[in-house]
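Reopening this ticket.

The earlier resolution said the output was attached, but the attachment link was broken on my side. Pasting everything inline this time so it's all in one place.
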Amino acid sequence: MLKPTYTSAAVRKQQSMSNTKTFPDGIRVFKPNEKAPAFVKGEIVIKRKELQTWLNDQDDEVRLTIKESHKGSYYLEVNNYKPENKNTASFNAQAPGKKDELADDLPF
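Inline output:
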């Protein structure tokens, strides 16, 4: 099993997404202040110019996952998951003129 590597923004695009953790530049997430009400779940700090520069190199949609480190602090990681392109249409499609075999087994 490959261990994940942690890289700077300049190197991220060159490495395989399967074993590289990607962290966004210019945005950070923090646990709420201990005096904050229960409905406050965290705080996000954005450095506009730094985030905009990073976003210019990304796709139209960027998914970020909020995670908790071993030390208990929050951090953001880019969710690079890409579902496999399975052809679901072939599962539902039937050959023309072929009788639905499941229809005979249904009790209604």
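Reporter confirms the inline version is readable. Confidence is low (pLDDT under 50) at residues 1-5, 10-17. The chain has one domain: 18-93.
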